[in-house]
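Intended use. Records like the one below are meant for learning the mapping from a protein sequence to its folded structure. Do not use them to infer anything beyond what is encoded.
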Amino acid sequence: MKSNTLFFLLAWAGCSAVLAQDGMPPSPVTVAPAALVPIQSLIEVPATVYSKNDAKIASEVAGRLLEVLEPGTHVQKGDRVALIDSKPLALRGAELKANIQRVQAQLHFQQGEVKRLANLAKKNNAAERELSQARSDLAVAKADLAAARAQWAQLQDQIERATLRAPFAAVVAQRFKQAGERVGVDDDIVRLVDVSTLEVVARVPLRYLAFVSKGMALRVGGADASEALALTRLITAGDDTSHQFEMHLDLPVGRWPVGEPLRLSVPTSVLRRVLTVPRDALVLRAEKTFLYRVGADNTAERIPVIPGIGSGNRVEVEGALAPGDRVIIRGNERLRPGATVRILDAG
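Structure written out for the chain above:
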């Protein structure tokens, strides 16, 4: 009987030691320290993935299209992407070649005439006027030959341009014309996109230009991932319509494809060192926002705060709080002021 009474008294004493002032056991919580952190306000702006080399390849000669590569085809620099029928140009070339031969014959004749008349002039058997005319005809023949050769060179250039070649390694993204169609000069044939040199481009209001600089790291996010990228180029020439400037960030291959819509975090204030707490520490109510600080006696103290700007998982707060104070980040939803808590770990 005495042993049972002793067991009951020990059990009652143990329970009393762990009971809080309101008769409830301590609430298990996770805490983290309030800390001074360099922070600045951010906005998210739409961004898009572009290729640095994205070009529409147009025809430079008119004619019937014999061949066009299919979309999705990968090409190297210099590879043929389309072919225009150059037979009419070749026929024109035969005509120009014959003209060159005719002008060469005329030049040869005029050279002989000048030489013959020059010899006669030495013997006073030819008028100076005839010699001058022959020399003039020779000059005209030389000019005609130069013009004929220039026309020949232009034609050879056109024949060469009948073969459309890739200016850089790329993939055929679009095909605007089909084989068999007749195309004119400057008609778009294909679109080539270099998928190995990508960048993220965003247009940002000019009022935020003072808070960004080349080389700074900015966070870019997609549907299921985000990462920090370096700002590589700033195009600050805004116009009176958009009032925006462009930001370009180099993108590693394989992250996102061309055309992917992204979100870019852009600073909108100077960097400040402010008191912050983890976002999970804030308890949001309709009438106020507050958090719980753990006191030296392991009781929860409600502290009203005013949230400020955020960065990552931390947010600026204003209130009766100091750096190093332990704030509750787990288990704070149903706490009451003065409740005894049991700290599980430090967040």
